[in-house]
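Regression check, FE2/S2 (inorganic) cluster case 99:
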Amino acid sequence: MVSQPASRLGSLEALRAQLSAPAAAADSPRPDAATLADEFLLCHCTNVTAGEVREVIQSGEATSFDDVQRCTRAGDGCGKCVPLLGDLVVVELNKVTTR
Ligand code: FES
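Current build output:
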């Protein structure tokens, strides 16, 4: 058996902790799209806020999920925001269609 220096084992433990952190975050529940503040940064890849998504829908510029993506570019990066973006689009389109 090869012995490992204590500092190397410490580094491995730190790396293991870093690798497990995103998985834990991914398991957390999505926020409620209906209660997001306009300033909420929805898409970190393209810096799109919930307010910008609401604006393109309420102005009539976007009438579908694809329109919102085309108008704002939200979801054009890693895709991690797409589920919450979809929730917000549904909430906002429902508001527009029930006016
Ligand atoms: S966070 Fe929106 S595409 Fe990455």
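Comparison notes: The longest strand covers residues 41-43. DSSP finds four helices and two strands in the chain. No diff flagged against the previous build.
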